[in-house]
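ARCHIVE CARD
Drawer: 12
Card no.: 0347
Subject: one protein chain, sequence and derived structure
Cross-reference: see card 0346
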Amino acid sequence: MSIQSELQSFWNTYAAAYSAGDAGACGAMFTTDAEVHSPYATPAVGRDAIGALHAAWTQGHGEAAEKKVTVVHAGRSGDLAWCLATYSEGLDVGNGTPSTSSNGKPTGRG
């Protein structure tokens, strides 16, 4: 499986959890030492903080259509993987282009 396919699978699982409002599942997608940096919040460090951040983000999103993430470009160098993706969730403020990286841990999540 290509790195782009692997990362698309990761983001499909993430988007389903986000759309379901399952902040715990969103947080569980990340390692215990992961960091999320977003223009919408202060940085979240660690799985618990990432889950809490997603709890705030998913609260009241019942009116949003399903979140979709599409990997546009991805690559890997040694233990480092990265991707550029677009996302939408059906809200006026819910579209953008995140850039992510992963350290290639055995779970495939970083």
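Annotation on reverse: The CA atoms of residues 21 and 70 lie 19 Å apart. The chain is about 30% helix and 30% strand.
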